[in-house]
Structure prediction request, 266 residues.
Amino acid sequence: MRFTFCPLFSGSSGNALFIGAGDTRILIDAGMTGKAIEGALRQIDVLPETLNGIAVTHEHSDHVKGVGILSRKYHLPIYANERTWNAMARTVGEIAPGNRRIIEDDEDFYIGDLALLPFSIPHDAADPVGYRVFYGGRSAATATDMGYMKKSVVKTLAGTDVLLLESNHDPDLLMLNPHYSLYLKQRILGNHGHLSNLASAEGLLSLLETGVREVMLGHLSGENNTPELALATHTERLSREGVRVGEDIHIGLAWRDRVSRKFEIE
Prediction:
């Protein structure tokens, strides 16, 4: 029972996560061009025409840019809650009526062999969600684009086998960034913005208690963070609690502009 999990892209320039198990292959979000996503899929030996659907977290363009073109080209069903459908209508364009699937927050649904649980997250979008995906007693999840780590999110993610977790920015780098307006900085730092490295590490401490042992840090800002800083912040914070990174928990990185590590969960 092989369960495959691979971030294709993760960052403010675009997001797409591949999950496959049994005879089912899906994307969570498609926020790059169709061509870029097709190329990334082929790098992990997945033909785009074998996809069974796309589950959407929220309507921001870095999550839905390629949704419409992929759906029309490969006749793919698109899964999103109603408020997200309404908010992304212009961006994704026309979707065949039979491929417009409406889901409900906190109610699981199936795409082929995979069971998906969408859960509410705090972000400045119409009705944003993360997803936990189940297959054969194992699970994987994505939790990015969150202003803070809600207790309900920790509860939903408890015991996940592999998790893509946001580690968006370093607050000091953000505040010193001359290219960002004060409004944008406040939005990112707010309760409906993005998780900082330290906030991500604090959330990870809570998840560690539930049995989470394999994490990829994602949605890193290209201007307000570095991979080295994100890893160092997590390692330092967890070490203060006696957690041995690399032994008690494994932390990797999901890259903004290229395919990341492919997990094969047995």
